[in-house]
Amino acid sequence: MGFWSLLEVASMPNLQMLLISALGALMATNYLNLLSPDARRSMNKIVFVVFSPSLVFTSLAKSVTLQDLISWWFMPVNIGLTFLFGGILGWIAVKILRPEPHLEGLIIATCSAGNLGNLLLILVPAICKEDRNPFGDPNVCASVGFSYVSLSMSLGGIFIWTHTYHLIRSSATKYKAMNAAEESSKKPNMDLDANESSNLLDRGEEDVAITMSTTKSPRDDTNDRTIESESIGSDGKLVTQSASARSTLSGILHQILEEILAPPTLGAIIGLIFGAITWLKNLIIGESAPLRFIQDSLKLLGDGTIPCMTLILGGNLTQGLRKASLRPLVILAVICVRYVILPAVGIGIIKAAAQFGFLAADPLYHFVLMIQYTLPPAMAIGTMTQLFDVAQEECSVLFLWTYVVAAISLTVWSTVFMWILS
């Protein structure tokens, strides 16, 4: 198939996504007010808890086998490489541009963490459903593509809620420290005046304190030593430090456990189990399966995932129309990393992995691995900025421009990837 024919195949899904996203943006405006922030949050919860797990489960349970899982071992490695190279390039951009300290984590996060779930769920099946796609029968391609994307979403979520979560939390810490320093620098004169006015009282209180300390009983001294021994451990380190370390480790493990038990990830895990174990698959998959109504019901729910996700995406991007103190060079740097450098790196990595025999033979699998390097930033980054109350407006502006450019970038790079693989 020629390059221009492949370009037409690649452009159709992106045009569909643009149209539905524009509708979502229009519905979120004050003119219609059908997708208000509260409505988007409620709708997003339904997608997260009901629609997305149903879609992930049905696709994995139907098309995945144990042999498939073994042959797909390179996918978590590939996702880790997208975060590694994206993080390095984001760090270089931060060192060159020198943005405000609280924006450093956001820039590195948007360069490293791609939308490995929601956007792929829209893009890959839509390409498969085109009659002239280079990946074979549209129905088989869509089913297998859903399996690849579901696994990508599950693995990507773990990376995002560990690596990216830490970056945004560090930015929030810097932001709060910076604000505290500014506030303390604004009132040194007030503190001096207060100290001068209280000097006379302090001198009187010091005299009383000296008199009381000279009459201190041995019992009081014993109590002080007891309190001190309880505050200091046997190794000479403060107990509060070790408790803080345990608390931090417990928080990280709790966050990872929450991500593993999140509805989409849990749906993926259960779907993989049903797909890998033949007798479980036969219970719900197939015309003679006794519990096939479960699969049919879940598929019906899963069909609502993609349109709802796309409408929410369009509605959320309207937040980027606000004015924010974000330099154009920062936006340009993120766009260059995500849509110019990383895709070229991805082609080299996937071609090398294929040469060494690390990849399954399916060209659609290669395509999904390549396109993981080309995606716009993960929407979960916006959730994290809201959670820690840091750089929310800057994040919205970055999302607006990166997703607008993604419509062109995904079309071009999808065409290049299919041309390479066909």
UniProtKB/TrEMBL annotation:
The chain crosses the membrane at residues 15-34, 46-64, 70-94, 106-127, 147-168, 329-352, 364-385, 397-421. Signal peptide: none annotated. Belongs to the auxin efflux carrier (TC 2.A.69.2) family. This is Uncharacterized transporter -like isoform X1. It comes from Olea europaea subsp. europaea. GO terms for biological process: auxin-activated signaling pathway; endoplasmic reticulum to cytosol auxin transport. The lineage of its organism: Eukaryota, Viridiplantae, Streptophyta, Embryophyta, Tracheophyta. It is a multi-pass membrane protein. InterPro entries: Mem_transp_PIN-like, PILS1/3/4/5/7. Involved in cellular auxin homeostasis by regulating auxin metabolism. Regulates intracellular auxin accumulation at the endoplasmic reticulum and thus auxin availability for nuclear auxin signaling. PANTHER family: PROTEIN PIN-LIKES 7, PTHR31651. It comes from the Eukaryota. GO terms for cellular component: endoplasmic reticulum membrane. It is found in: Endoplasmic reticulum membrane. Keywords: Auxin signaling pathway, Endoplasmic reticulum, Membrane, Transmembrane, Transmembrane helix, Transport. The keyword Thylakoid does not apply.
